[in-house]
């Protein structure tokens, strides 16, 4: 499970004295533990992946703000954290693969003439947390 892998990698980061990696993994583990406490149960693999995607998104937003604030040093730190977190995420689909899957789902469920919201709901239910919702939205808007 991803949670155990993250915990094991924290130990490895401590042994190898990789401070930046250690700090990032500890932050992610803290978020995972908080979610477990909030839920009062262990997290499923899908929930862990969902939380990791949320952490990546937070850091991407921070990069944008740091670049606006002319702080490339902090933007680079956030980018390094994203790279560390993405090691634990499943391989993302390419834009072409995702487009093909979205179109197949729309065709299979006869949603071509349905409103955007219904199409989005159906596609996200089918693909789950394996894809970025903004990419799906962009594909659906292109038609």
Features:
single chain, 143 residues, mainly alpha, Hypothetical Protein Yqey, Chain: A, domain1, 2 domains, 7 helices, 78% helix, 0% strand, globular
Your description of this structure?
This protein is an all-alpha fold. The protein has two domains: 2-86, Orthogonal Bundle (Hypothetical Protein Yqey, Chain: A, domain1); 95-142, no CATH class. It has helices spanning 2-16, 19-39, 45-68, 72-86, 95-108, 116-127, 133-142. Helix 1 packs antiparallel against helix 2, helix 3 (45-68) runs antiparallel to helix 4 (72-86) and helix 5 packs across helix 7 (133-142). The termini are far apart.
First and last CA, distance: 37 Å
Dominant shape = globular
In N-to-C order, the SSE pattern is HHHHHHH
Summed up, the domain count is 2
CATH class call of the largest domain? Mainly Alpha
Output the number of helix runs: 7
Query: What's the CATH superfamily of the largest domain, by name?
Result: Uncharacterised protein YqeY/AIM41, N-terminal domain
Number of DSSP strands? 0
Global Rg: 18 Å
By CATH, the architecture of the largest domain is named Orthogonal Bundle
Strand content: under 5%
Amount of helix: over 70%
Mean pLDDT: 89
Structural class: mainly alpha
Write a concise synopsis of the structure shown.
By secondary structure, the protein is mainly alpha-helical.
Task: Annotate the secondary structure layout.
Blueprint: H1 2-16, H2 19-39, H3 45-68, H4 72-86, H5 95-108, H6 116-127, H7 133-142
